[in-house]
Amino acid sequence: xxxxxxxxxxxxxxxxxxxxxxxxxxxxxxxxxxxxxxxxxxxxxxxxxxxxxxxxxxxxxxxxxxxxxxxxxxxxxxxxxxxxxxxxxxxxxxxxxxxxxxxxxxxxxxxxxxxxxxxxxxxxxxxxxxxxxxxxxxxxxxx
Length: 143
Known about the structure:
By secondary structure, this protein is α+β, with helices and mostly antiparallel strands. Helix content is 23%, strand content 43%. The protein has a domain at 2-31 and 71-136: START domain (Alpha-D-Glucose-1,6-Bisphosphate, Chain A, domain 4).
């Protein structure tokens, strides 16, 4: 259980990177276990203020997991936060800061799960996916 953090640099401006990463439809491109993500509308009381509900499908340990989560973008400080209800107190934040000609992306995740090494590895894979998707296509809009 605890909070995990990892960072990387990406050759894209913070604004370009934020535009790509804050699009819910792009989540499965960089979160490895996620297979689908779609906006689910905004139901009062179901998500924190300023957030939107997201329906996600993931594959974890060979099991299909489907559910609702919340997702919040803040363009003023290039940050994204998310989480889901349940016993694991799962929530995270992704922050983008300028770094020379590119950006520094930092991901923090909090969960009550106890597989710390696996969680840390998942963060590093997510950051590697972001870097590959963005830099591999020469822009922060690989589509």
